[in-house]
């Protein structure tokens, strides 16, 4: 029997989940809206809001899961990668909770957890599988051999796919975080209206910084002829940018699947909520004979459910950390 309380505070969402014998019975996510005023996450504000949100989020998670503090057998927390000030709030809370209740402490890598979110619901992928992990800070193709035996076989050399979405949204004067808004507008636009060149990057790696600049120059050029270019073409621009990003991601994913001879394919991270990527993956699966795994929306963007399921796997192995653990692991993965 195990009841694990998990805390995720790596960026701007304060989340608390409970895993009861391998099942997620609560996944409370308190979003921080304050950053919308600044067009991006302000680290100092994020950590302050985590401090305000963490106790109510824990209380709500206990209520949702119908358990009390005394039922908790271990506390799992995100130990990076992430913003140091934000991580500190989560790790300090987790340490105090574990100390007060005299229960073990489990540290979880945020990127592992995005991938292990696939073990929350059925169907679960079979090892080995390939996971495209796409978030606001990372873009990685990962060969997943076992729960904690993972190898990065491709990654971005500069910006992440989520950043490409968010920075394009900023160019279009859409508020932060722009990814979901680009997705929304794209649903009414023509994905082939405008063409953006695919970056030519070796191996299984990605680059999005030049891509973002090419969109900037394209928009400036169009605005010279028509100052209302953005407002008149917003849906088509969003659909075309989204289509290009999705094609870049899927082309590398196809290359990775061929290279490793693997047909079990998953996506994870905030950008896996994107409807273009989800549909594109389904099409690629039909073409390539893949078995695909797409997380439920609540487990795509940052959430403590994924930390709880990763913590559960570590709990089974008795893989605990001491009170002296630092808030950020030296290795990113
Ligand atoms: O995994 P996540 O919540 O946080 C990080 O670990 O970074 O990912 C956040 C990223 C943001 O860049 C956000 O714009 C993007 O995921 N995102 C989306 C969508 N939903 C979230 N991008 C495109 N379409 C979406 N529907
Ligand atoms: Zn994340």
The tally of structural domains comes to 2
Neighbour order of strands in the largest sheet: 3-2-1-4-5
Low-confidence stretches: none
Mean pLDDT: 96
Spell out which ligands are present.
5'-O-[(R)-(carboxyoxy)(hydroxy)phosphoryl]adenosine, zinc ion
Helix content: 40-55%
Radius of gyration: 20 Å
- Give the termini distance in whole angstroms: 29 Å
User: What would the principal axes of the Cα set say about the shape?
Assistant: globular
Count up the helices.
9
Strand content: 15-25%
CATH superfamily of the largest domain: ATPase, nucleotide binding domain
Major sheet: size, sense and barrel closure?
Answer: 5 strands, mixed
Describe the structure.
The protein is an alpha/beta fold and 333 residues long. The chain folds into 2 domains: 3-115 and 300-316, ATPase, nucleotide binding domain (Nucleotidyltransferase, domain 5); 127-294, ATPase, nucleotide binding domain (Nucleotidyltransferase, domain 5). It contains 9 helices and 10 strands. The protein has helices spanning 43-65, 84-101, 110-116, 161-171, 179-186, 209-225, 229-260, 275-288, 304-316, and strands at residues 3-8, 13-20, 23-31, 74-78, 105-108, 129-134, 139-146, 149-155, 264-268, 291-293. A 5-stranded mixed beta sheet has the order 3-2-1-4-5, with helices on both faces. A 5-stranded mixed beta sheet has the order 8-7-6-9-10, sandwiched between helices. Helix 1 packs parallel to helix 2, helix 4 (161-171) packs antiparallel against helix 7 and helix 7 packs parallel to helix 8. It is globular. The mean pLDDT is 96. Bound molecules: 5'-O-[(R)-(carboxyoxy)(hydroxy)phosphoryl]adenosine and zinc ion. The site of zinc ion (ZN) has 6 residues, from helix 3.
């Amino acid at each position: 029997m195990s009841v694990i309380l998990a805390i995720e505070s790596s960026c701007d969402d304060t989340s608390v989940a409970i895993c009861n014998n391998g099942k997620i019975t609560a996944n409370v996510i308190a979003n921080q809206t304050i950053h919308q005023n600044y067009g991006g996450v302000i680290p100092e504000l994020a950590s302050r809001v985590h401090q305000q949100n963490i106790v109510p989020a824990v209380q709500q998670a206990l209520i949702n899961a119908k358990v009390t503090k005394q039922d908790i057998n271990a506390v799992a927390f995100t130990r990076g990668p992430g913003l140091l000030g934000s991580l500190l709030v989560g790790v300090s809370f987790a340490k105090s909770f574990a100390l007060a209740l005299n229960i073990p402490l489990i540290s979880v890598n945020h990127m592992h957890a995005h991938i292990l979110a696939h073990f929350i619901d059925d169907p679960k992928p079979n090892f080995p599988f390939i996971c495209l992990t796409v978030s606001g800070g990372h873009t990685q193709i990962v060969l997943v051999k076992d729960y904690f035996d993972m190898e990065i076989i491709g990654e971005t050399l500069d910006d992440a796919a989520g950043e490409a979405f968010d920075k394009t949204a900023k160019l279009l004067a859409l508020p932060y975080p722009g990814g979901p808004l680009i997705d929304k507008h794209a649903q009414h636009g023509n994905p082939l209206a405008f063409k953006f060149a695919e970056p030519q990057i070796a191996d299984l790696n990605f680059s999005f910084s030049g891509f973002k600049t090419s969109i900037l120059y394209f928009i400036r050029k169009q605005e010279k002829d028509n100052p209302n270019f953005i407002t008149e073409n917003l849906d088509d621009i969003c659909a075309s940018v989204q289509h290009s990003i999705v094609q870049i991601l899927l082309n590398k994913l196809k290359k990775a699947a061929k290279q490793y001879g693997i047909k079990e394919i998953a996506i994870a991270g905030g950008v896996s909520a994107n409807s273009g990527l989800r549909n594109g993956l389904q099409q690629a699966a039909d073409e390539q004979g893949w078995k695909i795994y797409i997380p439920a929306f609540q487990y795509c963007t940052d959430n403590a459910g994924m930390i709880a399921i990763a913590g559960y796997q570590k709990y089974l192995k008795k893989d605990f950390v001491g009170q002296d653990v630092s808030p950020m692991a030296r290795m990113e993965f």
